[in-house]
Design brief:
Length: about 400
């Protein structure tokens, strides 16, 4: 599959209305925020309206909730502006506005709020502040968020005050923003990237409508606010309400199950996966591709329902195409982020080797297989393995390599 360079914006539906007809309408552009940011927050609005009424059939039935991280410079790239425009649309009425959580970092407060209303979009426009606090009480919030976004049937927690509390069918999305400098400074642990907090996010760097990352500030001519802006805000909100009620009606009182693909969509998805699997890049890009696939299917399900005007949950070729373009932008963004963590070729190579060992899990991986997968010379691989062993990141038992914290089978 050749790299798909088509537009990120579908020709019809909510994403198109939000980005092209509302925020970037000729003569009254509301912000010069990156188009990739606007597409991201448009998907988040769809997810917020539908994640408690639609489930997506992949590896079990899961809600189409999303975790998106906008990465860009403060002020210049308008991350917070893009987030706030999306929140304004959701907050028009209580029906969706109540789903928007507060920008708070207290685990107990979040649990209590979710017990009352288990569907929440958590805006974190200052994610850097949250991560800076990760070694204090913020550290307790990270594992909580990881569990909640994985949507367990029941989440149970013993509170310090008030005893046990249960949250049934939590539906949680996170819309965050951070600067590259903050991400580079904080870095996070390997656990965060491999299976933890960061592994659940799609990272979105500034990009244009074709999905090309562009760190320069766009020069859009902004128009003055007018009554039409309020009308469009109401129109977009009503569009989400209409889709929500259509899903409720089709589900006949139960959550609607999406996820079935047309033959054309299956073919396109297979080609997309083959293309992505050929990418040989640092650990932080390749690790967790299973989660990326799940997110692609989630977005495709939301898109398919939107593009059908709420009449069909069948995922068609167009839904896979536009979802795939967006996820490809996210992979490229994650690669750009990863390069900040691996400024040297040596560091990138160590990360790739570590990724192979970690994916092997308790079964371990042999030296021969590592040599074959890493495409390194034998002498170089031995030196890298010695470095990882001396730094106590890996173990070598019975000719196989394991991560330090893994018990061999």
């Amino acid at each position: 599959m050749a790299e798909d360079t088509g537009t990120l914006i579908p020709p019809t539906g909510f994403v198109k209305h939000f980005v092209s007809d509302y925020v970037q309408a000729p003569g009254r552009v509301l912000t010069d925020a990156s188009t990739s940011y606007l597409v991201a927050v448009a998907y988040m609005q769809l997810a917020t309206a539908l994640m408690d009424v639609i489930d997506v059939d992949y590896a079990g039935e899961k809600p189409p909730n999303l975790c998106l991280m906008l990465v860009g410079e403060s002020t210049l790239h308008r991350k917070t502006t893009a987030i706030e425009l999306a929140l304004q649309v959701l907050r028009v009425t209580h029906e969706l506005g109540d789903f928007v959580g507060l920008n708070e970092y207290s685990a107990e407060s979040l649990i209590k709020n979710l017990a009352e209303l288990p569907t929440k979009l958590l805006p974190m426009p200052e994610m850097g502040d949250f991560l800076t606090l990760a070694h204090t009480w913020g550290e307790r919030l990270k594992p909580l968020l990881q569990q909640l976004v994985d949507a367990p049937a029941v989440y149970t927690k013993e509170l310090t005050r008030g005893g046990p509390i249960e949250i049934y069918n939590p539906r949680v999305s996170i819309l965050a923003a951070i600067t590259p400098a903050q991400l580079s400074e904080i870095r996070g642990t390997q656990l965060d990237w491999h299976g933890g907090f960061f592994a659940r996010f799609l990272f979105i760097m500034p990009g244009d409508a074709t999905g090309k990352i562009n760190l320069e500030v766009p020069q859009l001519k902004r128009g003055r606010p007018c009554s039409r802006n309020a009308e469009m805000t109401a129109f977009l909100h009503n569009r989400l309400i209409v889709l929500r009620r259509a899903a409720q009606q089709l589900g006949n009182g139960k959550r609607l199950l999406a996820g079935q693909l047309t033959p054309e969509a299956e073919t396109l998805l297979s080609a997309w996966l083959d293309y992505v699997e050929q990418i040989n890049d640092p650990i932080y890009m390749r690790d967790g591709l299973g989660r990326v696939l799940h997110t692609l299917i989630k977005i495709a399900a939301l898109l398919a329902f939107d593009l059908s005007d709420g009449t069909s949950i069948l995922i068609n070729e167009d839904a896979i195409r536009y979802a795939g373009r967006f996820v490809l932008l996210a992979l490229q963004s994650k690669q750009a982020v990863a390069n900040q963590f691996a400024p040297t070729n040596e560091a990138r190579t160590l990360q790739r080797i570590t990724a192979h060992i970690q994916r092997a899990g308790a079964a371990g991986i042999s030296y021969a297989k590592l040599l074959r997968n890493s495409h390194l010379k034998a002498k170089d691989l031995r030196e890298y393995l010695e470095t990882l062993t001396l730094s106590e990141q890996i173990n070598n038992e019975k000719g196989c390599y394991y991560m330090k914290d893994v018990t061999p089978e």
